[in-house]
Amino acid sequence: MYKRTGLVSFTLTALALAIACERLNAAEAATEHVDVVGQAAAIDSALKEQRSSDSIKSVVHADGVAQLPDENVAEAVQRLPGISVERDQGEGRFVSVRGLGPDLNSVTINGTLVPSPESERRAVALDVLPSELVQSLSVIKTLTPDMDANSLGGTVDVKSLSAFDHKGLFYTGSTEASYDKNTHQTSPKFSGAASNRFSLGDGIDNFGVAAALSWQKRDFGSDNVETGGAWDFSNGARLNEFEQRDYDISRERAGGGLNFDYKPDDLSSYYLRTLYSRYKDTETRNAASLEFADPQAPGELGDAEGKRKLKNREETQQIQSYVVGGERMLGLWTLSGQAGYSRSSEDSPGHIAGATFDGGDFADSGFYDTAKPRPLVGSGFYDPANFSLDKVDWEKQHTQDTEKNLRLDLARDYDLSGYASQFKFGGKVSRRHKDNDLEAWVYKDLDEQGLSDEQLNLTQFQKGNVDYRLGRFGPGISAGNIRQLIGGLNRDDFYDPTESTVNDFTIREDINAGYLMNTVDIDDWRFIAGMRYEGTEFEAKGTGATDGQFSATETKRRYHHWLPGLHARYQIDKNTQVRAAWTKSVVRPTFGQLAPGFVIDDDEATFGNPDLKPLESSNLDLGIEHFMGRAGTVSAFVFYKDVQNFVYNTDVAGTGAWANFAEAHTFANGDSAKLYGLELAYSQKFDWLPAPWNGLMIGANSTFSRSSADIEGFDSASGRNRKRNISLPNQSDTVGNLMLGWEDDTLSLRLSANYKSAYLYELASINDKAHDLHVDAQTFVDFSARYSLTKNLQVSFEAQNLTDESYFVYTGHRSYNGQYEEYGPTYKLGLTFTHF
Hints:
By secondary structure, the protein is mainly beta. It contains seven helices and 42 strands. About 10% of the residues lie in helices and about 60% in strands.
């Protein structure tokens, strides 16, 4: 409550301060000085783009040395109103917009869709994209009819560097070292960008070339303890099992872009944008677990089965994007077109998906601390001689997602009863194809392969002791020794045909779209009205398994959407405008939800649902923006979304074809979900104050939202269907940012905080709210400083996660662990040389 109240108080105070400062700021506007680089310059460029847009959107711009305010693209976006991120190992990855999960939003690079490299998702992890390749990031929250309608929360549009972003020759190069306090490891980074303009034909500086490269290797880790929600609440709160985990991670990012722009005259322009990004993630996870013979309360002692586990895998994600397009004015007509090709892939070569060492029973074992369980166990649990290799899961997987599109737009300016107007129409065809191939082997009953007890004992695989911040852990496990052992076995004897078959799929989505829209300026009003049509052809092919017997599955569907839209903008005065929009949008379910494979084993079943309906949303937005000189704005927006056919996981056992099943887990469409909220934002550079206060900057934004949805499922206890009201998964009621900055010609400082309140992460069964998993509130505090040693040479320092914020998932109530993870702060020191 304190965090939320403080955030509201600060935002409202900032609004009052903005009004009070307006007169003083206006007096300075006539002699306003514009720096070439710096925080204020980047904020000012972003606000100018935001101000002139026909859509409601928020923007982050790179500064004059082609640097975003954060190294990670996802973390740069999260500074905007209404934006939060899902983090992986402490790094921001997936973006949520206005409380709607990452899979309900889309990501585009230079106007073309980025497909997801992950097998089950539509969401694109933005940390795959090196920030040095990015000139600006926009989150478009209201879609005009000429835009793809495939986002419910918003579209994140990434624009890469252009030679026309700088005058003449520009180049920059950076080197950086980062230190991870958790693992005490130091990691390198190198990046650079260059652009220049050339004269072709009779033109002057009409041809531009821009290039950017980036490489980073980061070694880090985290410490974790989790129950996965394994609590028994029937008699108090008793725990069935828990697991300690230590992660050792190496992430390597490499990317490059080469862009061309050609403007032969004032009537035409053409461009080619290319981007390649490679993200390699190597993870070693050691785990130690206790499974109690009977559920135990904290401090109780009893029998428990002990295990030690290892996961070791290498995963490489690649994104390629190529966009060619142009625009030509033909009298009152403007013709524009674009062709795009994007391909994402994820490749996981053969790896240890899980190796389990069984330690047998340990008497007088227990735990303490329900939020961060710690073991109460004898010294034998830490002796590798007590553990023997029981099973090795070996997997390899490849996923590829390709999207090709072609768009053509034609616009004509005309006079409508004395008012400037434009009629625009066009069409787009896109073809998307996603493949997933998984192969699995299960090495078990190893003693029957002629291997002795000594060969299977953990002492043969021990690799030192694990450095674990949350307490005593014990021996680590060598992945190389496990590979060597199973490498001597005939792997065909251990092939798992079910896992290797039912997870394979091919999904195709062909979308044909067309639209028409009209824009008219009537005095201080601008109106945009139009209609978009999207027709989708869907096909999913896979395989199902029924008690070990396989059968091919195929689903084909066609569906259509008519999506009207109306936008209005009213200019109250030179610096103040009101915006309103009513729009319709549509998002297809995730590929994991649509997966055509299934597994039926006796009276238990698990399957995707390729017959799911797309999610449809009717959206209302209303807001006011006031701009105050340089890098200054204050705004307030309200929004409302009525989402039809939202998707949730459910158990349909006991109903229909699954009437005689004990479990039948799948996905279903809900009827309707509501989401509404308020966004407040304030930004100000105090140029008009006397030195040194004229270098002060303040930025604050907060979003307050609520959601409500009804889900339905079969309750086996009562033998009938039941309904339950929930908040939408991934929706935080409060999201906020606070930034305090100061800069002059040589020094730039920034202290920033990002807050996200708790949210629903995963649903339990329809009648078991106590086992729903929630992610607890998080506040991340970062600091950065840049100092110009010379005009062209700059040194930088960054400290991330200064407060050592953890990641905590709780089961029903904050007292009960689902997952707890610590990362520690990271410190970075860099040097940048820039010529412009």
